């Protein structure tokens, strides 16, 4: 069956949000570790978080930290911290967020052509994803509110690389994996899409030039069929995966 649906990750795929988001949540994670008596204190920064947790949502980070440092969080504590993180990050995004270079003209061309259904499939909380795409004016490209969040849209919150959010999005859209292509910039996101049997385009544009070769291998190893260095390459990469 021909590809007729494109499922876009949001953070650092459509918008340059990862660095802002990790800056926003580093202080909160340090506070949690201090409250739970973690010693020595990890002293997270935005830069260290993006290295360790790119592609995960905040709930996923909390789960990882509990396992690493051996402290428990109640469901009430977890939900409270998740909401606090959302508020901090959304405030930063509303102030500073910009689109990924070259994404807007490609979305405009897709919308004008009209041959593909467009949707956003993210690990991040729905409030954050919507705030992000609204800030840069991309909400106009996703008709019918086709925005899905692993943290919010599912009966049980999860995070990529769990494929649940991609499976949910396809069910809601009435599409099969053979009709879809995903665009992802992280290992966890690529694994999420490929575990849902979706052909995936890996995007390395947001990474520093010296890290792109490394990330290309990471995304290919996670199952990406082709790699896109910049959004200018998108039409050719979409055509390439459509013939595979």
From TrEMBL:
The keyword Metal-binding applies. This is Phosphoglycolate phosphatase. Pfam families: Hydrolase (PF00702). Its cofactor is Mg(2+). CDD domains: HAD_BPGM-like. Keywords: Carbohydrate metabolism, Magnesium, Metal-binding. InterPro entries: Beta-PGM-like (IPR051600), HAD-like_sf (IPR036412), HAD-SF_hydro_IA (IPR006439), HAD_sf (IPR023214), PGP-like_dom2 (IPR023198). Signal peptide: none annotated.
């Amino acid at each position: 069956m021909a590809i007729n649906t494109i499922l876009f990750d949001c953070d650092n795929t459509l918008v340059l949000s990862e660095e802002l988001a990790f800056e926003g949540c580093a202080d909160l994670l340090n506070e949690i570790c201090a409250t739970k008596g973690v010693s020595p204190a990890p002293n997270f920064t935005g830069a260290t978080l993006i290295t360790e947790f790119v592609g995960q949502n905040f709930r996923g980070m909390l789960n990882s930290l509990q396992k690493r440092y051996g402290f428990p969080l109640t469901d009430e504590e977890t939900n409270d911290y998740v909401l606090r993180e959302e508020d901090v990050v959304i405030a930063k995004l509303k102030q500073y967020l910009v689109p990924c270079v070259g994404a807007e003209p490609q979305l405009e061309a897709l919308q004008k052509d009209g041959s593909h259904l467009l949707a956003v499939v993210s690990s991040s909380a729905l409030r954050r994803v919507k705030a992000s795409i609204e800030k840069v004016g991309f909400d106009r490209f996703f008709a019918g509110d086709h925005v899905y969040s692993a943290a919010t849209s599912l009966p049980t919150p999860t995070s990529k690389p769990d494929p649940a959010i991609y499976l949910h999005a396809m069910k809601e859209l009435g599409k099969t994996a053979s009709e879809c292509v995903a665009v992802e910039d992280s290992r966890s996101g690529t694994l999420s899409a490929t575990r849902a049997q979706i052909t995936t385009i890996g995007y390395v544009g947001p990474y520093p030039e010296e890290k792109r070769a490394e990330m290309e291998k990471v995304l290919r190893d996670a199952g990406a069929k082709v790699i896109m260095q910049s959004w200018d390459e998108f039409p050719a990469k979409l055509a390439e995966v459509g013939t595979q």
